[in-house]
TrEMBL record, chains A, B:
Family: Belongs to the gamma-glutamyl phosphate reductase family.
Any Pfam family hit: Aldedh
Protein name: Gamma-glutamyl phosphate reductase
Residue ranges annotated for the Aldehyde dehydrogenase domain, each copy included: 77-270
Enzyme class: oxidoreductase
Encoding gene per record: proA
Length: 415, 415
């Protein structure tokens, strides 16, 4: 039996045990892991150093090395995040719906774990802890398939988890790490329908696209964000500029940052130059349509591809539109259904935008940067879903659950 | 542009219009379709006759021809079912969750349409009407890809729908039927991620398996039902026999019928022969393990494959187990996560069964035949989901919806 199948089988078996664990038992296991990470700090840093050395030898960039790197603070942060997770409500067991039928049947819909979660991710070793603890909190077993660049770090972190679980009532088989980080193990996970209930890719667009395209196991997709702000005719200039700068520059590398601004032609006449100059002053490179290019020097003319591009950098495309309808149509054509905002004082236009723009989160007079599980108050975030089935937008603990109907009778049969 | 792409584009465009339609507008469209089907009855029957004749020439079995066949009563039933659909609550627009943030942001999660639903189905032309009207009720556009064996029937039914919609505010492009029913169009639908938000296969196991395996568009899977009854030591004999007979014989060809009975060894000693004789008397063929085979003549010995088999006929596998744990393990290994029942007077065993059996619907002292959208009181049924994401068990109108966060601010930016 292959490693993937063997560990899949063990995880499945553990998942059945997890179903019956109480919130207290699961929280005790989480507390044990939080403690163990601090106890094992030296060992973790030593193993992490192996990954860093090997990464340097392979010529990884500083930013990649930074993603792999653990230090005392990062270990303390991981441990602290588990402390916060313990405080969150356990969604498992919640009664979602109760139906009393005339024939006396009592039908209840209850929240239950998904079962076994497969997680495929890239460099960051903190995802190992994050994924394992979110899974355990929601009563799920997990199979982790990290990157070879964090091999030693992931291995020592999962050893810590296993050491911690051995002190608790949660079976350590609930957390499985694949030693083999080749492409073949990823492919095997894509088709491990027998043991996996869901597969979650965490990483870049290529990884996610591959998983969505190839996996027969259902996928929770956390997608790209080609997010827009539309500045309507009646937008308050100061507010529009503030939100534009926040959306583009506060953290340009994340999915809820904006990549494009659409501007109403009338607003542009009065305020366009000031907006563009404010963005320039913050180091933002502007790529504009023909009208925008005429406003300031050094603006590059946008081509069709630019409207599709998620720059994830201090680059921004800017386009002029005639009305809110044009803005909505543009966003529905070029957007990635993530986060979209309208800045306007016109309630009717705001309502049209919020209704007709097809995205996980639509904003009126606020920055798209708020699309985040912590900002929404979920206390945890698995990722931000841009798909429409199961979960849409920031995914908290509930996204790692399913439901089940339990029906209580006294011998009823169907007539 | 291919037919699939062209119709996909039209449906997508229609789906954006549908988002803004009121419940009254959607119900008027449904009423118009219900009326039009009756007005067009002669034409529908004439076109249906072409499919029946061509089916006879091709040597289709009587049961397949019966599935294709329409008559006055069936058309009246389709029209009547639309009348019932009109009465159901419109789930669209429902506020699922409201979050007030300290920074003044008002975050609402609202129920919205999925967008465009692709439906791939087999012979029955009534699915054409069913799928189109369920989609319209929930504000979705739909692309229908029926079978060549019902080509003329599907075509005339969609013409009726279009004639009806032309009298209403709902654009007729919302309902698209593919003329080309070749394998190639199905394959194109599997990868039409640009225009399709979900793909729903309705039909046999082969069709569903193919769609799940090949589609990159998210799939709503309606799966097979290898359903069990476990008769525990303390089960009331009369109740157990009644539920077993109902589960197997009331309608053997459906997914919530039972395929297997597990019997506690102690219950078997007192009541086994009576149960088996009662089943025999109803024409049920028994396939049993070694213990069962010794109880009555003419019982075939089960092999490993039998425990996996969904007979969908008056055939039943029967196995003896030592306790509820063995029953649960057997079901989790061989079942299809559909509907499972325990018959017992022991509350602890009932609780263990309901908790640890991994299925969409788990019953205590009732027949598995109740797993049905109408029996559960949903008033409509898209199918019965055996997957764990998005929807599990009988799917009513809500399964055809997604959610969307709308956020109202006064200029908030992220710090």
């Amino acid at each position: 039996m292959s490693e993937v199948k063997e560990k899949g089988k063990l995880a499945k078996s553990a998942s059945y045990e997890l179903i019956g664990k109480t919130t207290a038992e699961k929280n005790e296991a989480l507390a044990a892991i939080a403690e163990q990470l601090l106890l094992d700090q030296e060992e973790i840093l030593a193993e992490n150093k192996k990954d860093l050395l090997s990464g340097k030898e392979k010529g990884f960039s500083d930013s990649v090395l930074d993603r792999i790197m653990l230090n005392e603070k990062r270990i303390a942060d991981m441990s602290g995040a588990i402390g916060q997770l313990i405080q969150l409500n356990d969604p498992i067991g919640e009664i979602i719906e109760t139906i009393h039928k005339e024939n006396g049947l009592l039908i209840e819909s209850k929240r239950v774990p998904l079962g076994v979660i497969g997680m495929i991710y890239e460099a960051r070793p903190n995802v190992t802890i994050d994924a394992a603890t979110l899974a355990l909190k929601t009563g799920n077993a997990v199979i982790l398939r990290g990157s070879s660049s964090a091999y030693h770090s992931n291995k020592v972190l999962v050893s810590s988890i296993h050491r911690a679980l051995e002190k608790t009532t949660i079976v350590k088989d609930a957390v499985q790490l694949l030693d083999d980080t080749s492409r073949e193990t990823a492919k095997e996970l894509f088709h491990l329908n027998e043991y996996l209930d869901v597969l979650i890719p965490r990483g870049g667009k290529n990884l996610i696209d591959t998983v969505v395209r190839e996996s027969t196991v259902p996928v929770l997709e956390t997608g790209a964000g080609n997010c827009h702000i539309y500045i309507d005719e009646s937008a308050q200039p100061e507010m529009a500029v503030r939100i534009a700068i926040n959306g583009k520059t506060q953290r340009p590398s994340v999915c809820n940052a904006i990549e494009s601004i659409l501007i109403h032609e009338e607003w542009l006449k009065e305020n366009g130059v000031q907006l563009l100059e404010s963005l320039h002053a913050k180091g933002v490179k502007i790529i504009g349509d023909e009208t925008i290019c005429k406003l300031l020097p050094d603006i590059q003319l946008a081509d069709e591809d630019d409207w599709y591009t998620e720059y994830l950098a201090l680059t921004l495309s800017v386009k002029v539109v005639g009305n809110v309808k044009e803005a909505i149509d543009h966003i529905n054509q070029y957007g990635t259904k993530h986060s979209e905002a309208i800045i306007t004082e016109n309630k009717q236009n705001a309502e049209a935008f919020l209704t007709y723009v097809d995205a996980a989160a639509v904003y009126h007079n606020a920055s798209t940067r708020f699309t985040d599980g912590f900002e929404f108050g979920f206390g945890a975030e698995i990722g931000i879903s841009t798909q429409k089935l199961h979960a849409r937008g920031p995914m908290g603990l509930k996204a790692l659950t399913s439901s089940k109907y339990t029906i209580h009778g006294e011998g009823q049969i169907r007539g």
